[in-house]
Please model this.
Amino acid sequence: MGAAPRPPGTKRPRLIARGWVQAAVLVTLGGFFVLGFLAIRTYQAQPPIPERTVTAAGEVVFTGDDVREGQKVFLRTGLMQYGSIYGHGAYLGPDFTADYLNRSAALVRESYGGDSADAHERTVDDYRTNRYDDSTGTLVWSDAQAAAFAELTEHYAGLLGSPDGKQGLKPDAITDPGEIHDVTAYFAWTAWTAAAERPGHDYSYTNNWPSEPLVDNEPTGHTVTWSVLSLIFLLVGTGALFAAFGRWNFLGWHHRDHRELRFHSPDRVRLTPAQRATAWFFLVMAALFLVQVLLGSAAQHYRADLQSFFGVPLDRWLPYNLVRTWHTQLSIFWVVTSFLAIGIFIAPLISRGWEPRRQALLTRVLLGALVVVVVGSLLGELAGQRGWLGDLWAQLGNQGWEYLDLGRVWQVLLTLGMVIWVVILFRGLRRRLRGESVANMPWLFFLAALALPAFYAVGLLAGPDTQFTAADFWRFIVVHLWVEDFMELFTTATVAYLFVLLGVVRERVALAVIFLDIVLYGAGGVIGTMHHLYFSGEPAEHLALGATFSALEVVPLLFLTVEAWSFLQMGARRHSPSDTPFPHRWAVMFLAAVGFWNFLGAGVFGFLVNLPIVSYYEMGTGLTANHAHGAMMGVYGMLAVGFAVFALRYLIPENKWSDRWPRLAFWSLNLGLAWMSFATLLPSGALQLYEVVESGYADARSLGYLQGDTNVFLEWLRLPGDVVFIVGGVLPLLWMTWLGVRHRVGRTRQPGDTEVSLLFTEVGADTDGETESETDGDPDGETDGAKEVSP
Amino acid sequence: MSGETLLAAGYVTLLLLVVIGLDVYGRQSTGAWESRIFAGYHRAAGRTPERADPHAWPHSEVHRFHRAVSLFISVVALVLTGAEAVRHHAPAEAALLAAVAVPHGVLLALLGRRLRHAKVSPPG
Model:
């Protein structure tokens, strides 16, 4: 079959079977339908905030407004980046839910006579019996519970208002007695929801989380049952996919590819003005990465030595909650910067060298806006936590939800920045999009990009007034669904497109991989988001569905490795004898690292903590940090660096390019990350998990435990790996990105260059002589021998 | 014997399994067609495509990367054992730590040599 020219004005037909598109749409719609249902159930079943909590004699302990104000104090002062509520937040300070529950139950029991069985029974009755009257909005507490509240208000006044610091917070962090009362009321209310039984059920609003023997909090039947069932679903799901792959040849790989490739030497590739402008993005990316890891080391230092930073009282200027806020925010910022840049970089390649006027100007405007948002939001978080912004703290300062810490104005501006980015991509792609079926790669790339601002914007639904359970639901739409599904989708589309543009993967195969990604992640990842919300005040159905579908998420992680392998098929391509060597050795190696960390950091370490019964004890321990670093840095971090290395190969002139820097960065980042995980996070997390099971959650999360001899020893053991990571990994990257800006190739594409072969590759004759009508990215009429061989 | 030494010895032994596991994982073919996922397809189609040459780039370098990471975990294990020995070195503790460190040392020596001699034949 020969290449038939397309009549002008008609669209290139869909390259992939209709079934793929239907499956992708159905699975996505199904996932979001269930997610919508779960959102409604969140609002229906979240624990109530009593309008007043009173003693039997009618004395008011605290009001609903106190609780709501307490949440604002908690958020504004950055306490979610110090400790946690329901296990969600930071892991240095206590989990305030578990801490309050443990301390107050101990006081109540003491007042009932201490260790006797009767005292235990009365304590359990005080906490588990739900004395909330929905019709009057009144919760009745025992006198002992009220007395414990008064005593714990003093305790938290001492902890949060300590004039010496030395516990991770700035000295005198919260001193206002009214604020102390309110924030204690907030902790007390979450502790009440953690033990009081849901009406009609024999478990608490939090599915009996945390583990607390004083109030008989132990895993529910649901927690155990769905753990077992989710394991079964995982096995069945994997088996079914293996069987399906046996039955259908999904990906259309029939035999080795015999095309001959000739890679253009990077200096022969003419960049467009917008592509040239991305050099600044990569420099900003590397600078943000450096700041992020330095802040990470400061945060880590607090775990190793709370007293001071080698004699410097760091907590006065950079308390733990501030450095962790910046560390987590920057982890999103620097990765996103690279994603934005690579989108702009490949848009002209997709459009076969065409770029509209003023695209470079828009790109520079976007970079400027990004810098303003990043710097503005980080300074806002500092000012907000310090209380310098008055009533504007949530708008301009520190909104305080972990990962969505930035003020609302900055959040809106960041979303708008991503919208500008989508506009830039649309301008660059519009000529190409006009002639393409919506199911083909240019549209998929564009739609994947469009999803990024759309789903980041969902985070706006979590405000300071939103009740924790609902806020956590929306927060994890960003933290999980945006990151794990939509960044993943954009990543797959981008990586697939890069390989198509390089000529090493056929467009049809790349399309199949993207659709497979949508189907698999749609099936597991969308509803799987609920695996973060087993114990945060959601009803049991979130636990059941979350456990089931997130277990299925392991399946695509397994497949992603296969997908990475498919891209590595390029190694099997024969290159023509006289060609330029494949120029992207280190970009490909970073992608190989992505595959490895997808398997280890996301797959193994993630599944390790995923089952409800494990999560019940494990949540908020070092094992979560282990998974987070292995997955976020291992997958998205390596990917962001890989994108940068890819683009820099063209931005840095051939005579200034050296493989030495990317090689050093590659090995240092990977080995440093492996060290971090295996020397510290994994063993200390495992020990902490043991401590939870042995002594209860509150104890394992206490500063006393973290400062214990063994834990401190493990925390210090991280130091050499972190030095390797920063010095050998991040600094060479920063140097390379600087070279990209300093020596950017000056010559840009001119209108007359349109006819000059744009692609990095030329494709020689297909030795099998079969060609397909039209393929991507090649103005010279590339041939593509996609052959269908029926099984 | 201190509990910490026992825990360290246990963890270092566990790391031995991790190193071996990752090394086995790293030896798997990175050619897409050799994945077991396609076993059913191979049976149905009745033809097996050529295997990816493990010595050809990028497969060669990906294998080396996997092996380097797994061996590096042995280095972590040795450092951990050494640091633990500085903290607790009663004769029994030192003997236990030495016993769990030896297999890592052997692995490092054997596989490390192979790693150094592995050719990756980078493009160009």
Observations:
- The mean pLDDT of chain B is 85.
- The radius of gyration of chain B is 19 Å.
